[in-house]
Amino acid sequence: MQMLMLEPQIFVERTLALIKPDVIDKEEEIEDLILRSGFLIIQKRKLQLSPEQCSNFYADQYGKLFFPNLTAYMSSGPLVAMALARHRAVSYWKELLGPSNSIRARRTHPHSLRAIYGTDDLRNALHGSLSISSAEREIRFMFPEVILEPIPAGQNARDYLNLYVKPTLLAGLTALCKEKPADPMSWLADWLIEHNPNKPRLQHQITEEE
Predict the structure, then answer these.
(1) What pLDDT sits at residue 200?
(2) Any catalytic annotation for residue 87?
(3) Cβ-proximal residues to 173 (8 Å cutoff; 6+ apart), any chain
(4) Where do the Nucleoside diphosphate kinase-like domain residues begin and end (predicted)?
C-alpha cells in the first residue's frame, strides 16, 4: 500500500487574548496556563481603555442590551492584552476559554478558563477573537504600532521557503559538512547569522580632513 506523504506546511495563526479588569491579579497564573498550552506570547501590554475605546473595540456588539454594561465593565480598570500565536490559535484559544457565560461554563466545561476565573455572562474573565479576520482587527486595535503581514500558507508558503529559506540553508549545511566543527549546532547558527541575505548592510562614508 502506497502511503501519501503530506508536504510540510506553515501552520501559524494569531489571536488576541484579553485578561479583563476583574482578574488582573491572576495575570501571572493565567499567562503560565497560556504558555503551558502551547501558545507563544508575541506581544503584550497592560492598558486601561476609556469607555469610548471600549465602544470602538466592541463595535459589532453595538445596540445590544448588554452593550452599556460591557463598555462600563471593560473600562473599569486596567487589562492585559496579548497577541498569541500557535497552530490553529483562534480555535484552540476559544476551546481553552470555554463558553462565554461563566455559569454555563462551570456546568459544561468545568476545566475551561472562564469556568475557573469568570463570574457570570458579563464578567467572564477573558476575551478571545472569534475568527482569524477579527483577530487581525483586534490585534491592530490593541497594538497599533505592530505591522501585521499576511502569514504565507499552502503554495505561497512553499514558494517562500524555496525562494528565501532553502538556498541559504543548503549553502550553510554544505559548509557545515566541509568544516566538520566540534559543535555543529552553534557553528551553523553563527554561519546563518553571518550569511543572512536579509541582514541590513550599513555603508560608512569616510571623510578626509584637510
Answers:
(1) 55
(2) no
(3) 188
(4) 12-150
Please tell me what DSSP assigns to residue 208.
-
- What's the Rg (C-alpha) of the chain? 23
38 and 128 in a common domain: yes
At 121, which CATH number? 3.30.70.141
Dihedral angle of Cα 149, 153, 156, 157, to the nearest 10 degrees: 90
Q: State the DSSP code for 97.
A: H
Model pTM score:
0.67
CB 131 within 8 A of CB 91: no
Q: Indicate whether 133 and 175 sit together in one domain.
A: no
Q: What is the pLDDT of residues 29-87, one digit of tens each?
A: 999 999 999 999 999 999 999 999 999 999 988 888 899 999 999 999 999 999 999 98
In terms of residue numbers, what domain contains 164? 154-195
186 & 104 share domain: no
Kindly name the residue from 87, 127, 195, 204 that is annotated as catalytic: 127
For the chain, the domain total comes to 2
